[in-house]
TrEMBL record:
Stored PANTHER family: INNER MEMBRANE PROTEIN YPHA-RELATED, OXIDOREDUCTASE CATD-RELATED
Family per similarity comment: Belongs to the DoxX family.
InterPro entries in the cross-refs: DoxX (IPR032808), DoxX-like_oxidoreductase (IPR051907)
Protein's UniProt name: DoxX family protein
Subcellular location: Cell membrane
TM ranges: 7-26, 46-67, 74-92, 112-131
Membrane topology: Multi-pass membrane protein
Species of origin: Paraburkholderia edwinii
Keywords in alphabetical order: Cell membrane, Membrane, Transmembrane, Transmembrane helix
Length: 143
């Protein structure tokens, strides 16, 4: 696969991951009171600090994914964040209703899979279609 094709695929992967986080940040911001109530019901500590932090992580993470800025660090941060949200937000082991538990299991493992995608970005970097790619030093050799 050529570098241009690889960069295009990495760009599409970044955008696909970003959509989830940008949408999430927007919905949490628009329904802020409900979001805070959800965090409180989940037993998240320091909700007055956690709620805006979550929105900031999702918003900035989504923007950085789209533009390809500091993707190795962003990938690692969002992988950790996504695993944490799986554990705190999709705790299927505490759900007694069978239908709801199945739904929570799916969402839990979906988050783990998304974290895997972020770990891949941590290793591959942003690709050529990115701020990181534009800032990378170029050698005079063309292979």
């Amino acid at each position: 696969m050529s570098r241009a094709v690889e960069s295009g695929v990495i760009f599409l992967a970044r955008v696909a991951l970003a959509v989830l986080f940008l949408w999430g940040a927007a919905m949490k911001g628009l329904g802020y009171a409900s979001f805070v109530g959800y965090l409180q019901a989940q037993g998240v500590p320091f909700v007055t600090f956690a709620a805006p932090l979550v929105i900031a992580i999702e918003l900035l993470g989504g923007i950085f994914l789209v533009v390809g800025f500091r993707i190795r660090a962003v990938g690692l941060i969002l992988a950790i964040y996504t695993v944490a949200t799986a554990i705190l937000g999709h705790d299927f082991w505490n759900v007694t209703d069978a239908a709801l538990q199945r739904d929570m299991v799916v969402h839990f493992w979906k988050n783990i899979a998304i974290a895997g995608g972020f770990l891949l970005l941590t290793v591959t970097g942003a690709g050529g279609i990115s701020i990181d790619g534009a800032r990378a030093p170029r050698s005079g050799l063309s292979l």
